[in-house]
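Mods, move this if it's the wrong board.
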Amino acid sequence: MLLHGIFPPVTTPFYPDGKVYLKKLESNVERYSRTPCAGIVVLGSTGEAILLSDQERRDVLKTAREAAAPNKVLVAGTGIESAIETLRLTEYAAELGYDVAMVRTPHYYKKQMQAANILAFYRTVADRSPLPVIIYNFPQATGYDIPAELVIELADHPNLIGIKESSGEVEKVRKMVEGTRQVQRSATVTETFEAVTPRMLEAATSGSNGESGELVQVAGMSGSPSGKPSSAAVTIVGKMKTRQKEAGFQVLVGAAQKLHPSLDAGAVGAILAFACLAPTACYEIHAAWKEGDAELARLKQERIAQAAQKIVGDLGIPGIKYGMDFNGYFGGPARLPFLPLTGARKSDVERLLADIRN
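Not the wrong board. Structure tokens:
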């Protein structure tokens, strides 16, 4: 599964009385689906998942899944403190048609979260999960920072395909990338190297007599010297032409203000709370970097750095949601214990976003 690009971790909208506002969630997801983002993350930290009931989590997953465009990679945040509850929510996400499960590090019993505990937790979840799994490390919220050495050890598991690293430590990103280079995996992509998921392949074969496709070469029918299909080989699956791309263990980051240096350190993409209110501005950094235009990527990074730090890092979810309101999405209120922004802080958000509109 290819995880390259920018993913907004969508917020969960609420009515003023605190009930989940599913119609506004549907509207936001439909709008994100029209952006150049690679996919959408549901029930991440920005989605206030930890403040939702189990039924609310399921309702949010279902609504977002139905509203998302078919060409977007869908990531479900399914991490709960116990492995068994994590698997239950992951199984539900798989039934709905999600593509990837994002599982945050267990953290409540911090003193007991030794290497053996973390290894056992993730290996158990990955062994039994019907979806490929990415680790989610967010020490600013959990108080637990999974060591790079543990991530490198876990990376060999065939169903653990990556990590969202939200610590903001660029050198840690570099260390994980370098330490997982031995992981050799390929991902199915389109002819233009965009992600393809099993859900997309299933949709492509509908109405095509269930044929699995035939293998042809882009540059003629000759095979590679080894007799295996070359990397230029195209597989026609129903109505879709696909090929294979080397993916390995994929590191995504969560700090928008450090996106460009993280990409230089080897990250392949990002799940950014700042993308909830400015998805195109985040995408432009990744696009410039991907095109090899370091100067443009640097300028695009400078454009959002202060706003991302102040709004996401300092003000948190109430700041993100107000920024969404300011930029035309529905943010609305956050749940207690979050409090609304003061008038002065709202003015700060508006000033920071004056040049970053969507």
